[in-house]
C-alpha cells in the first residue's frame, strides 16, 4: 500500500518489511531503485517535475525523517514508522553479509566512499565492497563502465537529492546492478566524518535538531520543514 503526502506516494512499510522487500529485489534481474524522501525532497518534487517522476518511478519510496510521519498523521493516513535510508542500508548490509553479497559505494567527496567501505567491511565481515567512487564526476559513461565491471548486487548512489534520484532513473537501464538506493549523506556517516545524532536524540525524534546544531548552515534547507507542515495542514483542511 502507498500513502500520499503532498503528491509523493510512500510505501507503508516498517523497517523490517522494507529490508525484506529490498532483499527480494536483489534476487531479480530488473534494476530496481529505492528512494528515501524527507520533507525537503517532497517540497522539491512539488516544483521539479523531473524529480517527482524519479521518485514516482522508484520501486520503493521510504519515509526518511519524522516530518513525513507527522505529515501522514495530520492527513489521517498514518505510516507505520520512519525508515531512514542510512539505517535501511545498514540492515541490508547485515543480511547481505550472511550470503557474501556485494555493494558499490558511489558519492561524496574524494576518499570518503573508500573510507566508508573500509569501516563497513570491518563492521560487516562477509559483505563484499565491489568498488567505490566519489560523487563529483563530470561524465556518467566511465563511472557506469566501472560499476558494470564490478557488477555489484547493490549500488549506493549518494549524490544528494534530487540529483541521485534523477541519476538512478536516467541510468537504470545501463547499469548491471540488482538494486540501487539513493542515500544522500550516508557515506559521510559511514565514513565517520559526519556524526549521527546520539540514540536518545533519535528516540525523541530530534535528529533534525542535532544536525542543525552541528551544521547551522542547514537552516535555509530546514526552513522547508515548517513550509511542508503548513502545506500538509492546508491539504488536510481542503479535505484531500
Ligand atoms: N554530493 C556528491 N556529488 C554532488 C553533490 C553532493 O557526491 O554533486 C554528496 C555530498 O558530498 C554529500 C551528499 O552528496 O556526501 C549529500 O549530502 P546531504 O547531507 O546534502 O544529503 P542528505 O543526507 O541531507 O540528503
Would you kindly provide a written description of the structure presented here, covering whatever features stand out?
This protein has 240 residues and is α/β, with parallel strands linked by helices. The chain has one domain. 50% of the residues lie in helices and 15% in strands. A 6-stranded parallel β-sheet has the order 4-3-8-7-5-6, with helices on both faces. A two-stranded antiparallel sheet has the order 1-2. Helix 1 crosses helix 5. It is globular and about 50 Å long. The model has no long low-confidence stretch (mean pLDDT 95). Bound molecules: uridine-5'-diphosphate. Uridine-5'-diphosphate binds next to helix 9. The site of uridine-5'-diphosphate (UDP) has 14 residues, from helix 9.
The largest beta-sheet arranges its strands as 4-3-8-7-5-6
Structural class: alpha/beta
User: Helix share of residues?
Assistant: 40-55%
Order of helices and strands: EEHEHHEHHEHEHEHEHHHHH
- Report the span from N to C terminus: 18 Å
Attribute tags:
single chain, 240 residues, alpha/beta, six-stranded parallel beta sheet, two-stranded antiparallel sheet, 13 helices, 8 strands, globular, binds uridine-5'-diphosphate
